[in-house]
Amino acid sequence: MQILVTVKEVGQLGDEVVIDDGDVAESALEYDLNEWDEYALESAVQLSESLDDVEVVTATIGPERSEETIRMALAKGADRAVRIWDDAIANDDGDGLLDTRTRVELLSAIVDREDPDLVLTGVQSADATFGSTGVALAEEIDDAWAAVVNDLEVDAEAGTASVHRELEGGIEELTDVQLPAVLTIQTGINEPRYASLRGIRQAQSKPLDVLDLAELGISPDAIAGSLETTAMYEPESSSDAELWEGDAEATAGQLAAFLRDSGVIEG
Amino acid sequence: MSDVLAVAEHRRGDLRPISHELLTVGRGVADASGGDLHVAVISGAVEEYAEELDREGVDVIHTIADGEEFNHDLTVESLDALWADLDATYLLAPNSVNGLDYVPAIAQRLDLPLVTDAIDVSLEDGLEVTRERYGSKVETTLAVDVESEGGAVLSIRDGEWPAAEGVGDAAIESFDPEIDESRIRSTVTGFQEVGAGDVDISEADFIVSIGRGIEEEENIELIEALVEATGATLSASRPVVDNEWLPKNRQVGQSGKTVTPDVYIAIGISGAVQHVAGMKGSDTIVAINTDPDAPIFDIADYGIVGDLFDVVPALIEEFGGEAP
Fold this sequence. Notes:
The structure holds two protein chains of two kinds. By secondary structure, chain A is an alpha/beta fold. In chain A, about 30% of the residues lie in helices and about 30% in strands. Chain A has a nine-stranded mixed sheet, sandwiched between helices. A two-stranded antiparallel ribbon of chain A has the order 2-5. A two-stranded antiparallel ribbon of chain A has the order 3-4. In chain B, helix 3 crosses helix 4 (about 95-110). Chain B is elongated and about 70 Å long. The chains are: A alpha/beta, B alpha/beta.
């Protein structure tokens, strides 16, 4: 059985937001493995530990920089990795990959090569937060699917996955899905492991294939997409909170006085 | 003339509020493009839902009676057939958990551009959609090339538009697509409520809530000392529960509980929209956070810009307790 996990390296903003030329300045970003993908990866690795003969392959659309993140995924238990990149993607203004169909075109080419039984993606990426890649990919490759999964059991013999989908308001939907399937994994489904030193060492020698568009049989024209970023800005703060000023003792004192006045505290 | 198709959402016998918000967005888009507003409601008590959806500005409601509860395969197949029948341009759907389960698939099926989680939509200069990136730290506007694509699919964040009101005179039409049974490859077998556990935070009058800012599991005891000294009820935002530092019945937010206490103190919580959805109904909100730009201050009534590891021990002392 093969499990394909999509692994995205995302840029995260700290407290300071810098926007240059209509885009977030790279200097303001810290790059890391997308949080949701971390849980998807852990689900895949756990399945490979509990079922016989499972290979875990990661798929990434990303520049050479993302190999550090990919090696971490390999260190945490993936067997090998595929990375897609091309000058046509690098030279695009970044809007091309915002169109879900572009990402799906690239990832479905990987699915065609690997033919996985199960594809796990994060529910969304922390940077673009579209939340669309997994389910659109399932439609394209004609797999079954389930979105926002926070509990997963696979019955490899019966060819089914039994999942819980985390709905709003503390309700979970119980769903059976036929394999092959794409599942989008929600945070909290498991406890992602840290990479061990041994894992980090082993990751260096695990295969990491880099494929360009020609190797995937995709035309550079397919990258453009139909979305164009026309503005990017920091939302205006609309805070009209009354701020209590001073050191910790002073602010705590004001908060304590407020709580006593409001009647929620006696004494 | 460009028609709009908005897809209503229901669960376990009730229409969800986003359905009426979608009508407002849909009417706006239809007005701007000179088209009609169509609404689709799929599965369950569709006749009853159709009556509730018949608000001012709705032109046609299509009821598809197959199935009881939401099933994404049935939804995608039904919408595919209805779309072919209608010749509409804009497909509007909720950016809900169930929206995430079918909207990307129908967009891919129809080969249309997709923009999810819209917080504003404009047609003044072609279709422009506003949405957030990087959590809620950045807002961005996307222009969608509707003309060359022949349409677009948008999913809408809840709580951003008012609900459509009034009574309409929509035509209610039953639509009965032929669906190939082999396309239904997922089966909903039931629902499960997250355990009530030891406490129901939705009943609490005074809540102290903690978020990512608590940093480590060991620091929970600091907050427990505050709870002890003040008699507050303890809750948390998602990251704390994902880390299993507190049980799931303590989670406030979209996927957790909705709370409405007299006083809600948010400690080390940035105020992501999913969290705010669960606590904005509190009478008074107090925020303690190191980041003065954290969105939690946008909805707070009172705030302390400071380090919780300084403020909380001082607060415990104010009430005669002892910080660990």
